[in-house]
Design a protein that fits this description.
The complex is a heterodimer. By secondary structure, chain A is mainly β. Helix content of chain A is 0%, strand content 54%. Chain A contains no helices and 11 strands. Chain A is globular. The chains are: A mainly beta, B mainly beta.
């Protein structure tokens, strides 16, 4: 099956700095890569996603890049703020030889702490 | 938040008892998913549904069964709960097989003693 590795597991930055979280995936058929933000005790929230026919996507302070050849994708957060502190998860669709039905494999998560 | 609710939100049960968790959506989405979340493991897919009465296994399906008799409801059953099934369970929905955007319910915290 699909395997998604996420690094780092924890990330600490000062307010205003940039943060980068990286993920690698194993299934070359993966074609959709979302990122979720989860605050303590809350549900995961979709913050940005990218499809395999696009190399980069931006939404205000967050961006995602995809390198299909190397099978890795990254989340970039600029001008970090304390409210960006949360756990971030990457994910990738997996196919298992047939229709994916949108099934996602998640990375293990990154705890981001932004210090004021 | 998308129109997804889960019930119960918290449950404590004893080993060996059956437990059913309910996911209810008001979005008329075709795809529904059950995940469990444990420290160090992220979210792992248990079962999913691609239509009424159409379900299949995910990566951690042992000890779980599901049913979907109507579009809006997706039930997850632990036939005989074990301590290893203590976890937070999230339901998610997705509109169609192309857009893939999944939206999560509020979660159910299950403790098996």
């Amino acid at each position: 099956g699909e395997n998604v590795e996420q690094h780092p597991s924890t990330l600490s930055v000062q307010e205003g700095d940039s943060a980068v979280i990286k993920c690698t995936y194993s299934d070359s058929a993966s074609n959709y890569f979302p990122w979720y933000k989860q605050e303590l005790g809350k549900r995961p929230q979709l913050i940005i996603d990218i499809r395999s026919n696009v190399g980069e996507k931006k939404d205000q302070r967050i961006a995602v890049t995809l390198n299909k050849t190397a099978k890795h994708f990254s989340l970039h957060i600029t001008e970090t703020q304390p409210e960006d502190s949360a756990v971030y998860f990457c994910a990738a669709t997996f196919n298992a030889g047939g229709t994916s039905y949108g099934k996602l494999t998640f990375g293990q998560g990154t705890i981001l702490t932004v210090h004021p | 938040d998308a129109g997804i609710t889960q019930s119960p939100r918290h449950k404590v049960t004893e080993t060996g008892t059956p437990v059913t968790l309910r996911c209810h959506q008001t979005e008329n989405h075709r795809y529904m998913y059950w995940y469990r979340q444990d420290p160090g493991h992220g979210l792992r897919l248990i079962h999913y549904s691609y239509g009424v009465k159409d379900t299949d296994k995910g990566e951690v399906s042992d000890g779980y069964s599901v049913s979907r008799s109507k579009t809006e409801d997706f039930l997850l059953t632990l036939e005989s709960a074990t301590s290893s099934q203590t976890s937070v369970y999230f339901c998610a929905i997705s509109g169609d097989g192309y857009s893939y955007e999944q939206y999560f319910g509020p979660g159910t915290r299950l403790t098996v003693t």
